[in-house]
């Protein structure tokens, strides 16, 4: 069955550019972003890996660990990293899993369980479903799943924005409205009574009984 939001993110042990990686152990108490690629030396993914390296300080500030994955062996990743640095200005500064046995891709529902054989003989089109983003919380539950086609580069600024929302709403009884960005007003959760809202969010605005706005909580 496909992974759903709220499911436990499957644990695994895999080879990576930073050595053996045990997923749950590696995350520890951190959040995680696992983002996958159909093949090394593919053009769109080259731009994505470079941009994620550039953004890594922003993920670090949010206690988020980045992990890449490609359905190719680790030794090819190292050669690809040179091209990424040359063309994008940043080399991957996070582990990149070599999923040549398709284990992680299958665990996360990105490839059918029946897939087998030599990863080197598969084309990007064969692995086109391996272009996902999974955000995992410190509780090891899946918080976000994004699936992209091969021809469309991913928006990792949006992933950061969603993580800001996830972390805020995990801590406070609020939700974030359309296009919300850090520092903007939020919506009081429907589970909060007006009496509790008055205590927790003094001066909140009632737009409709079901739509109550308040400045973003701090702390």
> What is the number of domains?
2
Distance between the termini: 39 Å
Structural class: alpha+beta
- Count the beta strands: 11
Which descriptor suits the 3D outline?
Answer: elongated
**How much of the residues is beta strand, in percent?**
15-25%
Mean pLDDT: 95
Approximate helicity band: 25-40%
Report on the biggest sheet. Answer: 5 strands, mixed
CATH topology of the largest domain: Glutaredoxin
Low-confidence stretches: none
Q: Would you list the SSEs in sequence order as H and E?
A: EEHEHEHEHEEHEEHEE
Main CATH class of the largest domain: Alpha Beta
Assigned CATH superfamily of the largest domain: Glutaredoxin
Q: Supply the number of helical segments.
A: 6
Using the 3D structure, state the CATH architecture of the largest domain.
3-Layer(aba) Sandwich
Quaternary structure type = single chain
Radius of gyration: 20 Å
What are the defining features of this structure?
219 residues, 5-stranded mixed β-sheet, 4-stranded antiparallel β-sheet, alpha+beta, Glutaredoxin, 6 helices
Question: If you had to describe this structure to a student in words, what would you say it looks like?
Answer:
The chain has 219 residues and is of the alpha+beta class. The protein has two domains: 13-152, Glutaredoxin (3-Layer(aba) Sandwich); 172-214, 2-Layer Sandwich (Antioxidant, Horf6, Chain A, domain 2). The chain is 31% helix and 21% strand. It has a five-stranded mixed sheet with strand order 5-4-3-6-7. Strands 8-9-11-10 form a four-stranded antiparallel sheet. A two-stranded antiparallel sheet has the order 1-2. α2 crosses α3 (74-88). The protein starts with 12 loop residues before the first strand and ends in a 5-residue tail after the last strand. The relative contact order is 0.15. The model has no long low-confidence stretch (mean pLDDT 95).
């Amino acid at each position: 069955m496909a992974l759903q939001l709220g499911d436990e993110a499957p644990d695994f042990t895999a080879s990576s550019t930073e050595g053996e990686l045990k997923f749950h152990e590696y995350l520890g108490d951190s959040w995680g972003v696992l983002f996958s690629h159909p093949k090394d030396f593919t053009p769109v993914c080259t731009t994505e890996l470079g941009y994620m390296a550039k953004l890594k300080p922003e993920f670090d500030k949010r206690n988020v660990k980045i992990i890449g994955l490609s359905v190719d062996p680790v030794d090819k990743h190292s050669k690809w990293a040179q091209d990424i640095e040359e063309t994008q200005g940043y080399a991957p500064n996070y582990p990149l899993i070599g999923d040549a046995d398709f284990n992680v891709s299958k665990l996360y529902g990105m490839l059918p369980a029946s897939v087998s054989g030599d990863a080197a003989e598969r084309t990007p089109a064969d692995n086109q479903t391996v272009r996902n983003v999974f955000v995992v919380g410190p509780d090891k539950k899946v918080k976000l799943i994004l699936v992209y086609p091969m021809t469309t580069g991913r928006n990792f600024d949006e992933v950061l924005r969603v993580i800001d929302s996830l972390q805020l709403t995990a801590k406070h009884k609020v939700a974030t409205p359309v296009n919300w960005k850090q520092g903007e007003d939020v919506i009081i959760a429907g589970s909060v009574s007006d009496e509790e809202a008055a205590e927790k969010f003094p001066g909140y605005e009632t737009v409709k009984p079901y739509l109550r706005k308040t400045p973003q909580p701090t702390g």
